[in-house]
Amino acid sequence: MTKQKGQMVEKFPLDQRVVHWIGSISFLLCALTGLLLFSPFFDFLAPLFGGKIVAGRIHRIAGVVFAITPIIALIWNFKNLREFLHDITRFDKDDIEFLKGFVPYILNSPGYKYPPQGKYNGGEKLQAFAQVFLGVAIIVTGFILWFDGFFGQTLLQLSVPIHGIAGIVTMLLALGHIFFAAINPRSNAALTGMTNGKVPVEKIKVSNAKWYEQLKREKKI
């Protein structure tokens, strides 16, 4: 395929996009209701959900949806899920170099040069890996807290802080994710990619050189 200015290439297939938005929306509901249930400081959120009792119900329902999101991904397209997990758990020297230069990347410093990156850069890999790990912690501890009558007191006491800390850290990661996906000029093509699945070839030639070369070898661009 001849490379042309303005050409787009698929980065996020439909299954990945649907799973992403189901997980994102359900987590947002869990986060907001969780904050309301966590501290009186967030009581101003109560009118959004019709009070704390309703918020508690929404928290559980959204939690169930969040928990089954990976199951949807597994059933829908195991191959894509396996490739995604493979990509985010493989770090090489170029990924390390990307993380070393993360501050100038964030600040959009003039003269910044991307280390050669694959489909996902080192920062995206680290964030995705952390979110998978934290997501598992949230789901497991949430299950324990919901069905507290089946578990011992020690496990319950451990689950409370783990659930809260994992939730807060995931919220912070989500805010960073929104910044990079929608605001940072070096990476804001990701938002378009997560809506229509495609990203500009011109952009990945600079920011994801390894993936760009792979796509050329596969004659996809």
From TrEMBL:
Keyword Transmembrane in annotation: yes
Topological type in the membrane: Multi-pass membrane protein
This protein's record includes keyword Endoplasmic reticulum: no
Entry's transmembrane regions: 21-38, 58-78, 128-147, 162-183
Gene Ontology MF terms in the entry: electron transfer activity; formate dehydrogenase (quinone) activity
The protein's name: Cytochrome b561 bacterial/Ni-hydrogenase domain-containing protein
Lineage: Bacteria, Bacillati, Bacillota, Clostridia, Eubacteriales
Domain of life: Bacteria
GO biological process per UniProt: anaerobic respiration; formate oxidation; respiratory electron transport chain
Compartment annotation: Cell membrane
Any Gene Ontology CC annotation: plasma membrane
Cytochrome b561 bacterial/Ni-hydrogenase domain: residues covered: 16-197
Keyword vocabulary terms for this entry: Cell membrane, Membrane, Transmembrane, Transmembrane helix
Pfam families membership: Ni_hydr_CYTB
InterPro entries documented for this protein: Cyt_b561_bac/Ni-Hgenase (IPR011577), Di-haem_cyt_TM (IPR016174), FDH_cytochrome_b556_subunit (IPR051817)
Chief place of localization: membrane
